[in-house]
Amino acid sequence: EEEIPEDHPRYQDLLTRHRIERGVEKGITHLQGMHAEGRGSAFDYLLGEETIPSADDAERAAAAHLLLAEHPVLSINGNVAALVPGEMAELADVVNADLEVNLFNRTPERIEAIADHLREHGADDVKGLTADAHIPNLEHERSKVDADGIYEADVVLVPLEDGDRAEALDEMGKIEIVIDLNPLSRSPQVADVPVVDNIIRAIPNITEHARRLADADEAELREIIEAFDREGALEDAEERIRSGDL
Ligand code: ATP
Ligand code: MG
């Protein structure tokens, strides 16, 4: 990170790529994560590499859901751990959520490495190592979750999630918040709250909204959730990407 000059016009993008590379080297990110990063980077370029207003609305609604939740869980994969470990730990702290490692390419070594990495960045308790429950209607390995974590959560934040798993979680009746730069991907399409923004900007902004809403009563939080227009947010992001209007 030290080698990238801060005044470089693509500073954020280079920083992001560098973090994924480091994640692969450290054994917390799968090589596939590099491809996911590349796709995300292309969409972010077309969005102007900024949080568009409809994404900010989604981030506020996400904060309201997390604050209202009985048992919120933030799901962590290899890209999320490489990009925003401390930010995820901070959000978990602010909304009183669990962190759970949840991998598409699951190996005990990678789960351990990610859990350690999160703890190094301030996480207290990391779930996902027990894996004593299954998400129904998913291939065995891909479905493993903690019984007292994602399995029983009422609200789940799943950044950069695979489409099949996002659908299966939706079918379990969970309130699902998805962060994904591609508004056409299945994961944001099935989300209650699709956040079309770079996770690097999205997580700190959700945390900031949560801090501001910390004293809001239940009625106010419900109002924010009611007012959020998920179809509108998806259409808005798609329009922005297609327009080429930066
Ligand atoms: P599928 O159609 O199976 O969902 P996909 O192209 O969406 O395939 P995945 O690997 O499942 O690929 O998902 C990666 C997703 O994460 C992509 O939609 C990509 O845009 C998004 N993404 C990558 N990096 C970021 C990031 N930093 N912030 C937000 N979203 C990102
Ligand atoms: Mg996808």
Automatic annotation (TrEMBL):
Keywords from the UniProt entry: ATP-binding, Coenzyme A biosynthesis, Ligase, Nucleotide-binding
Molecular function (Gene Ontology), one example: acid-amino acid ligase activity
ATP-binding recorded as keyword: yes
Top-level taxonomic group: Archaea
Residues given in the record as ATP binding sites: 17, 39, 180-182, 186-187, 198-199
Catalytic activity, reaction form: (R)-4-phosphopantoate + beta-alanine + ATP = (R)-4'-phosphopantothenate + AMP + diphosphate + H(+)
Involved pathway(s): Cofactor biosynthesis; coenzyme A biosynthesis
Known EC number: 6.3.2.36
InterPro entries: PPS/PS (IPR002855), PPS/PS_sf (IPR038138)
GO biological process: coenzyme A biosynthetic process
Pfam families (UniProt xref): PPS_PS (PF02006)
Keyword match Transport: no
Oligomer status and interactors: Homodimer.
Purpose of the protein: Catalyzes the condensation of (R)-4-phosphopantoate and beta-alanine to 4'-phosphopantothenate in the CoA biosynthesis pathway.
Family: Belongs to the archaeal phosphopantothenate synthetase family.
Protein name: 4-phosphopantoate--beta-alanine ligase
Organism: Natrinema zhouii
